[in-house]
Amino acid sequence: MGADISFARVRRPTDNALTERFFGTVRQEEIHIVGSYPDEQSGRYEIGRYIDSYNTERPHQGLWNFTPAFVHETNNNTLLLEILAQLKYEAKMKRSLYWEERTV
Questions:
Q1: pTM score, two decimals?
Q2: For residues 48 and 57, is the Cβ–Cβ distance under 8 A?
């Protein structure tokens, strides 16, 4: 494939920031909550389930609060921005209706 292995320097998490952030999130939201897994197989299974939910269910702020799977499937920033604008408009209308009902 022509790919080269690139190792980060020792004690330099910024060399591979995206990967470091991902593994930090996995540790914080899955591994430290569980504490310990009964065996390697169940650990692999549970961490695999977490990674699946991370990609398909968990919105990411850096992706305009869409899931990575949705962004990957859409693969069109213009369409994503249109969807985001529509969601913001709907939220604004819901807030307006909420406050109109409160003042009546």
A1: 0.67
A2: no
- Rounded to whole angstroms, the Cα distance separating 53 from 67 reads 9
Query: Shortest CA distance to 85 belongs to which of 96, 77, 73?
Result: 77
**C-alpha span between 64 and 58 (Å, rounded):** 12
Q: Which two tokens stand for residue 44?
A: 């692999």
* Model pLDDT for residues 40-76, shown as the tens digit of each residue: 999 999 999 999 999 999 999 889 899 999 999 999 9
Domain ranges in the chain are: 13-103
In contact, 56 and 69? CB cutoff 8 Å: yes
Do residues 20 and 27 make contact, with C-beta atoms less than 8 angstroms apart?
no
Q: How far apart are CA 18 and CA 21, in angstroms?
A: 5
